[in-house]
Amino acid sequence: MSYITANVKSLLSELPKDVQLVAAVKSRTADEVREALDAGITIIGENYVQEACALFASLARQVQWHCIGHLQRNKARRAVGLFEMIQTLDSWELAESLERICAAERKKVQVLVEVNSAEETRKSGVDPADVLPLIKKIASLGHVCVQGLMTMGPLTDQKKALRRAFRRTREIFTHLKKEAPANVQMRFLSMGMSDSYSIALEEGANMIRIGTRIFKKN
Ligand SMILES: *Cc1c(COP(=O)(O)O)cnc(C)c1O
Asked: Distance of CA 114 to CAs 12, 134, 159, 207, Å?
């Protein structure tokens, strides 16, 4: 058994059943990704539209694709063709672009709203105070379906700061379950990476995005 297979199997065996494992595959080869899929990965997380296109072509099999990198509006059309879910919805303008494209193509796209839980250290995502107003606006769109929240957390290995950011995002998630419009679903809370997923799970994540822990030889 190769290390990738072993890594995936040990991760899957350690995760609670209701937790979705997304393999973050940026800069991995098609062979590496194929091996992870054979070992039981069912969701691929890609940061780059270009790279996803290339991988998509060489991996002819049933698997879900999620966009986990920042998505520029001028790539929205290609993204809609590739991804079942866009985990990095971070502006009303991007939601509008996705809506226009999906309406024309008679498709729906699932999105997670990316929350900036890290305050100073990282700038990606929507500020916590703006999440509910944004979700209320998106709820008026017919083809962009909010399914939950995603966060990166702070760029640090300090456990306290990570936990604070994840807890904050979970609190927003819980609040939205009550306050969000009826057609908005709060199903997925995507947070935690190789070095932080244990803390994220303790703080209520039900979707984690793992790269290094799958693809690196220990
Ligand atoms: C790379 C990446 C991950 C995985 O990070 P690892 O530390 O390699 O597990 C998760 N989420 C996003 C958005 C990423 O870009």
From this structure: 25, 11, 21, 13
Counting every residue written for the chain, the total comes to 218
Q: How far is the CA of 24 from the centre of ligand 1 (A)?
A: 6
Contact 44, 64 (CB under 8 A): yes
What's the pLDDT band for 194 if we cut at 50, 70, 90? very high
8 A C-beta contact, residue 199 and residue 191: no
Burial, 91: exposed, middle or buried (Cβ in 10 Å; 0-12, 13-18, 19+)?
middle
Q: Which atom from ligand 1 is nearest to the alpha carbon of 88?
A: 13
For residues 95 and 84, give the distance between their C-alpha atoms in angstroms, rounded to a whole number.
15
pLDDT at 118 over 90: no
Distance 95 CA to ligand 1 centre (A): 23
For a substitution probing ligand 1, which of 4, 33, 51, 68 has the most ligand atoms within 8 Å of its CB? 68
